[in-house]
Each structure stands twice: as structure tokens, then as C-alpha cells.
Protein: Ribbon-helix-helix protein, CopG family
Amino acid sequence: MASRVLSLRIDARLWDRIRDHAAKRGMTAQDYVVATLVRDDFDQRFHAAVEETERFYRGGDDPAAPAPPPYSSPSAGIR
Structure:
């Protein structure tokens, strides 16, 4: 995996908070920031996947589309 450099100017109070949060987790400030960005990216992708799944089961992008019928119980039709 290729590596890139990102340089940021951060307020001293924010930097201190980042370092404190990182230290509590036994991480460097750089690792903490990267982990936070990765987690946020995952959260956004997960949210998008959930929305896509809901649109699929709803039958498209129309929010007024009727909801799918309720699922039957696992024992339905078993004799």
C-alpha cells in the first residue's frame, strides 16, 4: 500500500486533546488520527450500504413506495 503525507495546522488545545486521547489508548497521535479517519470512513460506507439495502427492499428510490409485506414466521407452513 502506498503512503502519502498530509500536513495539518492544528490549534494547540485540539492537539493536546488528540494527544491525550491517543495516550489513553496507548497510541501515537498520528496513529490515533488515522484510526479515527478510517473508522469515520467505515461508518460512512456502512451507512451508505444500509441505505442502499433499504432502497432495494423498498423497491427503488421512491420513499412513498409501500413497505414490503412482513416476513412470515420460521415455522410457517411446517406441519
